[in-house]
Structure formats: C-alpha cells, structure tokens
Amino acid sequence: MTSMTTAEAEDSEIKGSLLMVFRHAPYGRSLAREGLEVALAAGAMGVELRVLFINDGVWQLLAGQQADRLSLKNHLAMASALPLYGVDKLFVDTASLLERNIEPAGLTIPVALLNELEVRSLFATDGHILSF
Amino acid sequence: MILHTVNKSPFASQCLVDCLRCVTSGDVVLLIEDGVYGSTCLRPATLTPLQKSITELATTEVRFCILSPDFEARGLDDKSLLTGLETVDYDGFVDLAAKADKVISWY
C-alpha cells in the first residue's frame, strides 16, 4: 500500500464516515435484522457510523415487541445494543413518526429527532451510505 | 366469502389500498406480517384517510382481522387497534381459510 499525504488521509477520513439508512419494518423481511448486524459489526470495528431510522424503519424502535411470538430474536433488544458497540449517533426522521402516529416520547432508545432539512444534510455529509 | 390476506405495510406498499378497492359485502380482510401496521392507530385522534376507510368498512359489511402473533411481535397492542377490528390466532386463520370460498393474497 502506498503512503498517503496528510491531505489524502484527512480526505479518506471524511469519506470513511458511514451513514446507515434503516427504511424497513422489522420481522416481515430480514432487511432490518441484517442492517442491524452490519451496524453492530461496523461499530465493533471502530467505523465512524451514523444510523438514520426513516420511513417504515421507525417501526424498529417501537417498544413492547414480543418477537418470541414468531420465534425470532427481539429486534429492539438488538438495537438497544448499538451504543454498547460505539454506535451512539442514532437519528430518527420526525415526519416518519408523525405519518405513523408514533409518539416520539414512546421511543425507548435515545435517538435524536431530525426535521426534513436535517435529514437532507445527513445524507449530504457522510462519505458512504448503506441502505437497509 | 372471499378471504383477502394483506402482508405489506400500508406505508410502504399500495397492497392494502388495492385490496380495499376490491372487497365486497361479506368478505374478510386478514392483515398478516407487515400488513398488521395497517390496523393500528397509536394516536386515535388523528386518523389517516386509509384508517378512516378501514374503520368505516369495518362498521358495515366487511370483517377485518389481524393475525395476533404478527401484531404482538411488532410491539403493537390492542389499545392501538382501530375500532371494529378483531384479532385472530393461527387457528383462527385456518378457520377463515377453511370457511372461505376463495382466498386472495395481496402482496
């Protein structure tokens, strides 16, 4: 591997930051679960990472999930582990909550609520995006 | 009686809307998997047009059911169920399918 200049190193640091976009509800498909697994793995490996819950992805944060009714792992319990893996920049699109009549106060994981403008700037900031 | 099963979230898919356009008197609509998100209203004061049409249909000729294991797994509970909707378990699903003349899956 060739050595990088300071400028290149800084550039790669910016480009190295990752935005993960969670757009799907848990359980119906495996997307939500797989996204979470990637986030946990990336967090464990020290990747600078931010997570945005948007559209049906906000259902992942609903309290009181009883995944055992489907013989599955509890998605919210897994999501709660994100901060333990160093993934503590968690964002939620407020409009998606409102559209689904979900009270922000009912969310049990500490998340930052974003307006439309802030969501757009989140997409603009990170070097890489992974969508689940 | 036709049994209509809907398995997609109404926020991500047209399935439920498409289904409601085709139901007739005496039919049963069963929401399963991510379809159960169509049965909830976490804040009853603010019904969406889709939720309004479900509650209206439910008071008249169409029976709406929700598969309870799917409903409960997602953290939804009876308190957030739209009025006029009922929950069924897997046995209830089998009964509905057995009683139905025809079954159509909206997916």
Write up what this structure looks like.
The complex is a heterodimer of chains A (132) and B (107). By secondary structure, chain A is an alpha/beta fold. Chain A is 36% helix and 16% strand. Chain A has helices at 6-16, 31-44, 75-80, 94-99, 116-125, and strands at residues 18-22, 49-53, 90-93, 112-114, 128-131. Chain A has a five-stranded parallel sheet. The longest helix of chain A has 14 residues, at 31-44. The mean pLDDT of chain A is 89. Chain B is of the alpha/beta class and 107 residues long. Helices cover 31% and strands 21% of the residues of chain B. In chain B, 39% of the residues are buried. The interface between A and B is medium-sized, with 26 and 23 residues.
Supply database-style keywords:
heterodimer; A: 132 residues; alpha/beta; five-stranded parallel beta sheet; 5 helices; B: 107 residues; 4 helices; 5 strands; 21% strand
Oligomerization category of the chains in this entry: heterodimer
Radius of gyration based on Cα positions of chain B: 12 Å
Radius of gyration of chain A, in Å, reads: 16 Å
Order of helices and strands of chain A: HEHEHEHEHE
Secondary structure: helix percent of chain B: 25-40%
Summarize the main sheet of chain B.
5 strands, parallel
Q: Give start-end ranges of low-pLDDT stretches of chain B.
A: none
- How confident is the prediction overall: mean pLDDT of chain B? 92
Shape of chain A: globular
Strand fraction of chain A equals 15-25%
Class from helix and strand fractions of chain A = alpha/beta
Shape of chain B: globular
Cα end-to-end separation of chain B: 20 Å
Strand content of chain B: 15-25%
Helix coverage percent of chain A: 25-40%
- Average pLDDT figure of chain A: 89
Number of helices of chain A: 5
* Pair of chains with the largest interface and how many residues each contributes: A-B, 26 and 23 residues
Strand order across the largest sheet of chain B: 4-3-2-1-5
Task: Work out the number of β strands of chain B.
Answer: 5
N-to-C terminal Cα separation of chain A, in Å?
A: 32 Å
